[in-house]
Amino acid sequence: MAFPHLLEPLNLGHTQLKNRVLMGSMHTGLEEEKGGFEKLAAFYKERALGGVGLIVTGGISPNFRGRLAPHACQLSFSWQVKKHKIITNAVHDGGGKICMQILHAGRYGYHPFSLAPSKIKSPITPFTPSAMSTRQVDKTINDYAKSAALALKAGYDGVEVMGSEGYLINQFVCSRTNKRTDKWGGEFANRAKFPLAIVKAIREKVGNEFIIIFRLSMLDLVDNGSTWDEVVELAKALEQAGVSIINTGIGWHEARIPTIVTSVPRGAFAWVTERMKKEVNVPLIATNRINTPEIGEHIIASGQADMVSMARPFLADAEFVNKAAKDNSELINTCIGCNQACLDHTFQMKRATCLVNPRACYETEINFTPTTDKKRIAVMGAGPAGMAFSVYAATRGHKVTLFEAKSEVGGQFNLARKIPGKEEFNETIRYFLNQIKLHNVDLRLNTRLDAEVLKEESFDEIVISSGVIPREINLSGFDNPKVVNYQQVLNGEVEVGNNVALIGAGGIGFDMAHFLCESHSSTLEPQKWNKQWGIDEQYKQAGGLTQPSSHQSERQIHLLQRKSTKMGKGLGKTSGWVHRSVLKKHGVNMLTGVSYQKFDQQGLHITVESENKVLEVDNVILCAGQESNRSLLAQMQATGLPVHMIGGVDIAAELDAKRAIRQGAELAMAI
């Protein structure tokens, strides 16, 4: 049997889970959309049919003031039960089990009605919460229990009580945010009363044959966070209070240490769950950056945890568990931890989806049904857009020939995967290459699609996905061999010196700076990574923090931006701060409001705030965007065949694989 530990059933006494895989909580945005619960039902049902052992919904508030946003979802009234039954019925029809997460935002509420243990503003929200009165504390405990009872009535198999990531319960537990002087504050035993009262109230309402998961913050990663002894004390008390499972929570949302972005090593925090395994007997779930069955199998087989939680990997592939069970892990569409279409969308109040799987959360809208009008389609360019279109179109029954002038597929992903911490992009290339083989796409490497090739074969339509070329800058001295573009550097075509200026501070510029700062040995070694970010595996300090190791770059790098706006403003909301932090740690000199004059033997001449400067650099690397590669467009149009453009050749803004892959999917549906 493939992955025997991962796929082994887990007995909870009153019920049994068919395997050790939890689909972790994710807010999709469908919770608030009109008709969203029907779409959510389709989303969850596909994952249930895909074999996951237990699903947890996105956070549902137990009352109005606990909402994450003014119009966020809550379950407080009997009339709200009906729409939840749409979800539970769909999951049960798919052979799965589902728990509803109860989440009170506390001071993270993005509205002026937020409540918290104390009147202390969060650094990540604009609103200062009101301190809860004793009566409001008691009412909130009752609201949790009432919400759980309604969840039972709606057909959920259990609830997950969100007690981590810096939300309300975490705020009560931690002295950082709990400055109360009543029975709910002060010493730790008092601060811990709130979560324990909630669990006991829920258990009393729902009985013993109902799953209660408690998501416990085992590693706060903030100053004045919980100590390890406090975490253990609370875990033991929760076990006695009647929780069925304890899920691992890592980091508050305001923490300045990344916990889920692609640069975080796989399974980086399993050591925390393993440490807790020595303290309690209740089943424990390991979380964060577990994205392959191999990682999950190792964590369970080695005794680090009883289950593994994966959230975004089920956006990337609904069939994750079934493919693992068939020993077809090479066919899994792996989550690359980019956050671009999931968490970034959530923070923009948009529906979440997935960069590598645009069907995620669009299961009722994006489908590749078999066609009755089969066509022969020529595709130019095997980057993300071309690969996606080819696979989706072939799935529908079209005969697709994919032409790639280079010796490998991947396009810009072949550059992205060379950036330290972005090695996961290899997985997307592997996935699409296997899908190309599986769906009999005729892949022709080292072959440029041009008019001569088209004369030899008969095609019905042409899809151009030839990508982008770096934008050139025409200034004095920029024809010097020491002025190069980012593609030349990443492809190893040129050597650069120890003093370098990068022109352009978008995603390409940041990636290029990171590439030049770090050696090409893997950055995904957990112990090395923990030291870089100041995570103490010995847990001697509250919050699990220690002094980060110093890793000043051997190179002097100047990252230059023409705009005077904040450096890296256009980067992803949930990952941009990580990229900025990395470059600061390496001592990269970041300048905004720069005008470029010329390059000569002295170096790069620039003007910053009306002051002329010369950067004595060995090289200038152009990262100032790109242009659509439309060199053969006229030839294709001259054939008289229908011609479609997708990806960078259509729009050459910041490199946008999310849009490219989605365009490929939408064209495949329509063609």
So what's the overall shape? Answer: globular
Distance between the termini: 41 Å
Structure classification: alpha/beta
What fraction, in percent, of the residue positions are helical? Answer: 25-40%
Our count of domains comes out at 3
The number of strands is 27
Largest sheet: 8 strands, parallel, barrel
**CATH homologous superfamily label of the largest domain:** Aldolase class I
Polypeptide structure, described:
This protein is an alpha/beta fold and 671 residues long. The chain has three domains: 10-347, Aldolase class I (TIM Barrel, Alpha-Beta Barrel); 376-469 and 627-670, Rossmann fold (3-Layer(aba) Sandwich); 472-518 and 553-624, FAD/NAD(P)-binding domain, CATH 3.50.50. 31% of the residues lie in helices and 17% in strands. It contains 22 helices and 27 strands. The strands form seven sheets. It has an eight-stranded parallel β-barrel, surrounded by seven helices. Strands 15-14-13-16-27 form a five-stranded parallel β-sheet. The radius of gyration is 26 Å and the shape is globular. InterPro entries: Aldolase_TIM, FAD/NAD-bd_sf, FAD/NAD-binding_dom, NADH:flavin_oxidoreductase, OxRdtase_FMN_N. In the N-terminal section; belongs to the NADH:flavin oxidoreductase/NADH oxidase family. Its cofactor is FMN; [4Fe-4S] cluster. Residues 376-651 form the FAD/NAD(P)-binding domain. This is NADPH-dependent 2,4-dienoyl-CoA reductase.
Output the keywords.
FAD/NAD(P)-binding domain, 5-stranded parallel beta sheet, 671 residues, alpha/beta, 3 domains, TIM Barrel
